[in-house]
Amino acid sequence: MGPKTNPVKGVEYPPECKEVSTELSKDELHRRLKQLAKVIQDIGQDDEHMKYTALALHMASEEFLEHESKDIKLLVACILADVFRVFAPEHPFGNTQKLKDVLMFLIDQLQGLSNPDSHNYKRYYYLLENLTYAKTFTVCLDWENDDIVLHLLNTVFGSLTSKHTEKVIALLLDALSSVLSDAESISIPLLDAIFVNIVDPNKQLAKESYELAKKVLRRNSASLASSIMHFFNQVLMLGNSTESEVGEKVTDLLFELNSISPTLITSIIPFLDQKLKVNEVTERKGIIRLLGRLFGEPNSDLIETQAELWQSYLGRYHDIETDIRIMCIEQAECILINHPSAKAAISEHWNRRHRDADDNVRCAVVMAIVNTCKRGLNYVTEEMLQCVRERCLDKKFKIRKEALSGLGSIFRKYAITEDGSRSDYEVSYKIPIQWIQNRILQTYFQRLLDDKFMVERLFLQCIVPFALNSADRMKRLLSMFAYIDDNSRKAFSTMLKAQTQLRKLVKELVDVCGAGEESPKLIHQVSEQAVRISKHYPDSGNKVAEGLKKFFVSLITDKKSREMIEAILDPKCTCEKASEQSRALQTKLSSSSLPAGQVMAVKVLLERIAPLLIDQEAVDVLVQYVCDCLTNSCDFMDSYTAPSESGMALLVCIAPEYPQAFDSEATFNNLTEFLKHENDTVSSGALQILMNTGSTLKEKFPDTCEHLLQTLQSMVKIGSPRQAKHAVRCLANMFDNKEELFDSLATHCQENLSIESANLCTALVALGQMAVLAPKAEFVSVLKPLVQNVLVKQILMQDQTTQRVGRRATELWTHDHMVSEETQAKVQAMKMMVRWLHAIQGTENSGKYCTSTLRMLNTVLTTSGDLMEAKRIARGEMSRLRLTAALCILKIVHVAAYAEIITNETFQNLALIINDPVLQVRITFTQKLHKYLLAMKIPLQYMAIFALCANDRVKDRKFTVKQYIELNIQKRREYLKKHPPTNNRILFSLLPDYVIPYAVHLLAHDPELESHDDAPNLRNIKECLWLLLEPLMKDQASFYSFQKKIFEYIKQTKDAQNPDDDIGNKKMWAVCDLGIQIIMQRCPFNSKAVPCGTPLLPAKLFTGLDKSNSNRSNYLPRDLIYNPSRGSANRNEFFKAGDKAPSKEDEEEETAEETTSAVQVKDKPSGDEFINPEEELDKKMDASERRKKRKSTTTITELTANNSLLPDGAVGEGVQTITVGLVGERGELVEVNKRVRTSYKAAHQNGQTKVVVRQVVEDDDAMEDEDDKKAATRSSARKKAT
User: Fold this and answer.
1) Of 607, 714, 756, 906, which sits most exposed with the smallest number of CB within 10 A?
2) Alpha-carbon distance 1080 to 1129, whole Å?
3) DSSP letter at 461?
4) What is the pLDDT of residues 898-957, one digit of tens each?
5) 1229-1245/1248-1258 β-pairing
6) How many angstroms separate the Cα of 152 from the Cα of each of 136, 175, 677?
7) How many whole angstroms separate alpha carbon 361 and alpha carbon 322?
């Protein structure tokens, strides 16, 4: 049967196919189309296909393309697809528009691929396969309009699902590639259709489309390169981002293209250098983010191939924008991990940025280095870790916290094994990190409590993990202690002491909670003690106090919680039990009704008081480890130097804080064996441990105690001086009949008080210690002749050694092991004299003995250590004797009665020791001075000695001393806040500002200062004053006026040491002028009008105040006089803090009035006399009344303020000039000068000092009148002078 022809349309059909028309029913039409599609599938490309042109046009008619049935349209699409196959490479559709309609129809049908579960899916697949193999869509490549290809791209990417097979995806890829690969250029909209699938959000939401787009770009990278280059030239380089849908995500697009095929953007990368320098911050950030990701890719070679761009990128580490610098820092982590060759360059820039002025940048550097270290120590350099180490001292706590926490986690990960032993990380990474222990522990010396809390937490989590069992925990603790330096050991000891102190406070409070039934009185008592404990928190505000109060008040009735915390505080509590009870109590608190902040405060308290480190089992293990170290059988300590000494030092550190942990017979037996060890450090350490832990030894272990008594007595008699010292203390602590024991031992010691005795030093130490510990013993009363006849005449005043020659005779310092026995005896003799003075304090003639002792010690200082000046003592040993004499004086003034006796000359000679030519002398003396001052054991006067360190040749010493001064000032001011002074005398002894009179007097007697016009030495004295004044004025604006008044009042006195010495007085006044100028130059008086109290001056240093002579002269050389016109101060500020400079008329009136003499306070506790200059308010108010007669407008306001540092009845007046803006008659802004006069009066009420401030604002008419009068007065004075 031949082909059939439609008589209506002239359409010829293949054999066995009937004509098709939309006039047929849907079912019939569907059957005929299905048959037609089946037949046409078998038709090949031959010459007869042209006869089906009419059929093709008929099938492409609108009635079929727009049919409402999806199935019919699908069959039509399959037929048309076969038509394209049969007619390829031509097509039977005449005009372009018809072809476009057919192609759009075919693409629309491809949307059916989106549902692989459809019953027609195979036909859709056939359609796709046919179109792909025939490359049907290539016919539209020459068209200017891209609608067909764009529609094809959108349809293909939109129809993909996770259910599609690889074969379908391959066909889609071929279909797209056939179009893209044959095109001469690809327009931006077409590229957008691809690019939109490889950037967010489509990248995340349509992963199948993302994968197909990647394959399309990767396959056609060569043909697309030029089009992509044009795309980025328009969108990125020329900034026409609106031309593209992904224009705002161009940097993300570049990164994805590089990941897909780096060749796609090879020609674009070099041009990014220009975009790094654009002014637009957002654009610059986008490019930097892109480059950081590109350089950080694992397989990227851009660092090597684009060296210039890499250097430009590194230059952005110094970008002016903070966010950009942070971005570069954060991106470096990925670069370091994937490209180790960049380590040196990044390290260099991190080293600069960790000192950045911006806090966030410094913090970002720390976090980046720490995160990189956690990925592997091989990714970082030692210099990078040093950056983190330096940031541990950052001024911002958040940065210190990040640095320390990071170092702690690094140490925990790499330096500690599971059993607590030391890891071999140094062999693997060759980067030392043991120093982290020192850095973390030494942070405990920071002032903020936040730092201390953080160190305590890191210690138990990272350095010595509390979760380890006792054996492993003590192994780690001993290893740590053997490595850390002396400062870290001191920090560790301080940390234990602070925890013990807090544990004691909480124990007392818990005992109060369980003392009785709930009552208002008990609740009040508990609340008060809870507030005291809240002071141990960084934020001791109301929230913490309220949280602790509620918790401890609840313990009164909550017996179960009280028992849990009592179990934690029990001295016998084990670490495991403390951890369990603490967790249980915290869990209970979490479910309570307390607010989260208050619960956290209690949890922090539990963390601090729970004994998670040391218990009896741990101490037994630790003592056994030390025994193994002594026998060289402790394997894990082989790599450390002197492990046995470190172990003993650790036990000595722990013993005072955990004495009950040593309460076992095995431990005491081991300690007894340690006493017999030949190493003096070990035996002395055992004595110190027994001294702190042996109080219950006699009761619990009498046999061990009896054996120990004989050993201790033997050490007192024939042991080393150090052993004798600790043995005496052990006896005093362990036995109740210490007086009887000491009397019997003193007899033996007195027999050895001869220069020929081998045990002379031991006897001296033992007698001195016994005298201090048992002052009522009989032997103390007979020590006076021994001191006078033996210690002074036979030991101190006799130089038995012949004059030395050679190197040892000329060395400035002699080390401990090289000191001669004679010098050792002299040192111990001086110390024994001081201890004897302490023992006899308060007895008859004790003051006389102290005076003679001080005279002798002063002679040692003035003779540089050679008391008899026989020149037989080596210079190094003279330095040691000189130092000992100075320290003995400091020990003597521990007693208030003795501190009154010391003369000004002795104090000045003592102060010069801080400038001793020998560094060891200066360092030791300074440390002891700081120790005694910080403990508030010696008078405030001695803090003035620190001022002399300003001229120390070693620069670090000045910094250290400045820290000492700041700590002492902080300690005393905090003490004043907690314990408000009840009278002026207590205030004088505690207020740090009262060190100024002592400093002035001391500096005025500088031996090198010859006169008041000695400019070079006055410059040095100015540095000394500034070293002392800078910490005093730091953050204490309310004290500026008070400090300035001190200098002004001293200028109205004379030197009590030699009142008639005009040169000396002028030197003292010149020092005061220096102090006034420092305050004028450094302090913003123009912004303050703060009332201050009336200073007190020590009558021991200064004569009574001469109010008849205001002493306005300046005694400084011309080149040292501060010119207010060049600085921020004005003439008014020079005379009195905040007060107007008095006019000639005012000065004459004040001089004519009678002045009161210095007031001396009689009920002084320390023996000093004070001068109390009263403010003559009536006279000032008279002058003020005269000023009020001028034409002026005044406004008066009264304020009330708290100031606990002003004495009762204190009055004063100040002046301040301000500029205000007013609106003129025509609405203009007019600047007007106003003068604010401030007067105040202080009065004590209800235990506080209330200060009433009265402010009077004068307009500038009054000011102009007053200024005119002053100008006339100055002009008259100049005429008289001429």
Assistant:
1) 756
2) 6
3) I
4) 999 999 999 999 999 999 999 999 999 999 999 999 999 999 999 999 999 998 888 889
5) antiparallel
6) 12, 9, 94
7) 7
User: If you count them, how many residues does the chain have?
Assistant: 1282
- The secondary structure of 1214-1259 as a DSSP string is EEEEEEEEEE-TTS-EEEEEEEEEEEEEEEEETTEEEEEEEEEEE-
Token digits for 796? 């101190």
How many whole angstroms separate alpha carbon 826 and alpha carbon 792? 9
Which distant-in-sequence residues (6+ apart) come within 8 Å of 257 by Cβ?
Answer: 198, 217, 228, 264, 265
Q: Note the Cα 528 to chain centre separation in Å.
A: 31
Q: Is the dihedral of CA 1132, 1135, 1136, 1140 positive or negative?
A: negative
DSSP state of 913: G
Can you tell me the distance from the alpha carbon of 350 to that of 33, in angstroms, rounded to the nearest whole number?
A: 74
On whether the CB atoms of residues 931 and 925 are closer than 8 A, the answer is no
Q: Which residues of the chain have pLDDT under 70?
A: 1-9, 46-49, 418-430, 539-541, 639, 801-809, 1035-1038, 1083-1093, 1123-1282
- Three-state secondary structure readout of 402-422: HHHHHHHHHHHHHCECCCCCE
CA dihedral 516, 522, 523, 524 (to 10 degrees): -170
Q: How much is the pLDDT for 1136?
A: 31
Instruction: Please give the helix or strand (H or E) that residue 724 lies within, else none.
Output: helix 721-734
Quote the tokens at residue 857. 């010690």
> Cα(617)–Cα(610) distance, rounded to whole angstroms?
16
Integer Cα distance of 74 and 1157 in angstroms: 120
Cα angle 458-463-465, degrees, rounded to a multiple of 5: 85
**What does the pLDDT read at residue 1144?**
37
Residue entry with tokens 């046009």: 57
Number of Cβ within a 10 Å radius of residue 1056: 17
What pLDDT, on the 0 to 100 scale, is given for residue 856? 94
Provide the 3-class DSSP secondary structure of residue 1206: coil
Task: Give the number of C-alpha atoms closer than 13 A to the C-alpha of residue 1143, restricted to the C-beta side.
Answer: 18
Q: Which of 26, 36, 42, 89 is closest to 58 using CA atoms?
A: 36
Q: Contact, 327 vs 293, CB < 8 A?
A: no
DSSP alpha helix (H) spans, 12-87: 26-40, 53-59, 62-65, 70-87
Q: What is the pLDDT of residue 956?
A: 86
Can you say whether the dihedral through the CA atoms of 83, 89, 95, 96 is positive or negative?
positive
The two structure tokens encoding residue 632: 């060289």
pLDDT tens for 450-469 read 999 999 999 999 999 999 99
Q: What pLDDT score was predicted for residue 649? A: 92
Residue in 908, 915, 918 with CA at minimum distance from that of residue 879: 918
- What the block records as the tokens of 22 is 């939309």
pLDDT for 1140: 33
Q: What is the dihedral of CA 811, 815, 820, 823, to 10 degrees?
A: 90
Find the distance separating the first CA and the last CA of the chain, reported in whole Å.
146
Nearest Cα residue to 1111 out of 1169, 1171, 1065: 1065
Which of the 8 DSSP states describes residue 368?
Answer: H
Beta-strand pair 1097-1098/4-5 = unpaired
CA neighbor of 93 nearest in space, from 57, 136, 68: 57
* Collapsed DSSP state (helix, strand, coil) of residue 1201: strand
Question: How far, in Å, CA of 190 to CA of 1157, rounded?
Answer: 101
Q: Which residues contact 121 (CB under 8 A, 6 or more apart)?
A: 112, 113, 115
What is the reported pTM? Answer: 0.74
In a 13 Å sphere around the CA of 63, the CA atoms on its Cβ side amount to 10
DSSP string computed for 235-280: IIIS--GGGSTTGGGHHHHHHHHHHH-GGGGTTTGGGHHHHTT-S-
